[in-house]
Design brief:
Layout: E1 14-19, H1 30-38, E2 41-45, E3 61-66, H2 76-88, E4 92-97, H3 107-117, E5 121-124, H4 129-136, E6 150-154, H5 168-173, E7 177-181, H6 187-196, E8 204-209, E9 217-222, H7 226-232, E10 239-243
Parallel strand pairs: 1-4, 1-5, 2-3, 2-4, 6-7
Antiparallel strand pairs: 7-10, 8-9, 8-10
Length: 260
């Protein structure tokens, strides 16, 4: 599963789990772009940098897995089967994801599916939106003198729900930065539960919608008022939530994209 290339022994193809980065097409890794150019099949998620698909030849099969909150999505089992079936036919398959394949990307499940049938599988790390999107909004998730701790959690299930498996008591008690992915719908509950469990209501919060894109916008507030502010601004998914004192640095930092 490692190395600079993957052989195709006995007519078996390969699968590459490619992290596409935080959103902008030019933030994918060099290795990821190289494998895309060599692909016979590309299985793409909703949050992957879809502009890259325009560079593919007409002979490349593009499968839209969606993986969004609404509409038709392939199930994870269907995706696993698709990757394996195409690779066993001798095809080169790229599984293009947003962010990093192994951070809430279910890449581990796909790698295990390949391993179970002997399909070579390479993992190409991607720049995770948990760090990159705050950085592009002028928020370093760690900063000397403020915090050296960082927790990245899924907000898919709100903290008050019995199905939540994150340790929200520890997140509330600690001084570190908390980055919440997939948490916009549960933002009122997340804010309320963190305060209830010990985080000061005055803790700065930023919600960054459509990070790493020309549509990026940022709403800031505190745990006490961010849910109301985000709703008033019409914030929708995809968005990254940053909770912690580092958010205040945004007022002093100015990010800039050097023109091409």
């Amino acid at each position: 599963m490692t190395g600079h290339d993957v052989a195709r022994p006995g007519g078996v193809g390969w699968v590459a789990l490619v992290g596409g980065g935080p959103g902008a097409a030019d933030l994918i890794t060099v290795r990821g772009r190289d494998l895309l150019r060599r692909a016979d099949v590309v299985v793409v998620d909703r949050l992957a940098p879809r502009e890259l698909l325009a560079d593919l030849g007409p002979e490349v099969e593009i499968v839209d897995a969606a993986k969004g909150p609404h509409g038709h999505n392939l199930s994870q089992d269907e995706i696993n089967s698709l990757l394996v079936e195409r690779a066993l036919r001798g095809l080169r398959v790229v599984r293009l994801k947003g962010g990093d394949p192994f951070l809430f990307g279910r890449g581990g499940e796909e790698a295990l599916a390949c391993a179970a049938v002997g399909v070579p599988c390479e993992v190409v790390p991607g720049v995770t939106s948990a760090v990159a999107v705050p950085a592009l909004a002028g928020i370093p998730v760690t900063h000397r003198g403020i915090t050296q701790d960082l927790a990245v959690v899924s907000g898919h299930v709100d903290p008050s729900h019995p199905g939540s498996t994150s340790n929200w008591d520890a997140l509330a008690a600690g001084p570190g930065t908390v980055v919440v992915l997939m948490g916009v719908a549960a933002l009122p509950e997340i804010s309320r539960e963190l305060v209830k469990r010990g985080r000061p209501a005055t803790t700065p919060v930023a919600v960054i919608q459509d990070g790493a894109s020309s549509q990026q916008r940022v709403v800031t507030g505190t745990l006490a008022d961010i849910a109301v502010a985000a709703e008033a601004a019409g914030v929708t998914s995809p968005a990254v939530i940053v909770i912690g004192e580092v958010v205040a640095l945004r007022e002093e930092l100015e990010t800039y994209r050097i023109p091409d």
